[in-house]
Amino acid sequence: MATVRVQTADFDLGAEFAALTAGRTDIGGVGSFIGTVRDTAAGRPITAMTLEHYPGMTERALAAIAAEAEQRWNLLGCALIHRVGRLAPGEAIVLVLAAAPHREAALQATSFLIDWLKTRAPFWKKECFADGSEAWVAASDADDAATARWIKQD
Amino acid sequence: MAVAPVRILYFAWLRERVGTAEESVQPPEGVTTVGALVAWLSARSPGHAAAFAAGRTVRCAVNQDFADPAAAVRPGDEVAFFPPVTGG
């Protein structure tokens, strides 16, 4: 059963790893990804990033993405935690953990989860620049391409 | 019997352009798809028109599932409009 959460508070990687693996001896590896706020956007310094989401649909989308990964890679568990609200450069935005019997499934599932989350889960980022201006982040073609590589050709 | 309204939600720059995060509307008979709803909502205010002028960059969800312009809209539905997602 996947852990899926949307929250304003920071998360604790150690605590989430401990929760995912508590009492388990069948796990052979846990893949992890932590997204953080970079201090520039297209070369311009930013002072903060504000994340908005669609309460209800976001949790449903994350649960669906987690279920897809669990089924495709026979995961022994996974966690998707995404922060919302105003975040400063250096702060954590998103946590992905995927537990599997072997490393290949754990690492592939982690990569799939963050790629799909970036293009399928309803979150929107607004960057606040050092000069006081703000701009919504445009969707990236590179993110779409990263997601497309996971679409099964059959 | 009164027909249930359609609950409309706007996110990110669509919310800013429309000027509200949420509204309850009673589309006329004949407005039964997302595409027809967009055309009808666009005429409600200059803000709505500005939001929907972005055309193909506007995404939609009906009852919290992604939906295309041909998707059905029924009384009581929750219909959300937003830009392409940028999480992660």
Overview of the structural elements:
The complex is a heterodimer of chains A (154) and B (88). Chain A has 4 helices and 9 strands, in the order βαβββαβββαββα. With 154 residues, chain A is α+β, with helices and mostly antiparallel strands. Chain A has one domain (3-148): Alpha-Beta Complex (Aldehyde Oxidoreductase, domain 3), CATH 3.90.1170. In chain A, the strands form 2 sheets. In chain A, strands 3, 4, 6, 8 and 9 form a 5-stranded antiparallel β-sheet that branches. Chain B is an alpha+beta fold and 88 residues long. Chain B has a single domain (7-82), classed as Beta-grasp domain (Ubiquitin-like (UB roll), Roll). Chain B has 3 helices and 5 strands; from the N terminus they run βαβααβββ. Chain B has helices at residues 12-18, 34-42, 46-52, and strands spanning 6-10, 22-25, 59-62, 65-67, 78-82. Chain B has a 5-stranded mixed β-sheet with strand order 2-1-5-3-4. In chain B, a hairpin with a 2-residue loop joins strand 3 (59-62) and strand 4 (65-67). The radius of gyration of chain B is 12 Å and the shape is globular. The model of chain B has no long low-confidence stretch (mean pLDDT 95). The A-B interface holds A 35, 51-54, 56-57, 60, 82, 93-94, 114, 117-126, 136-140, 143 and B 9, 11-13, 61, 64-65, 80, 82-88.
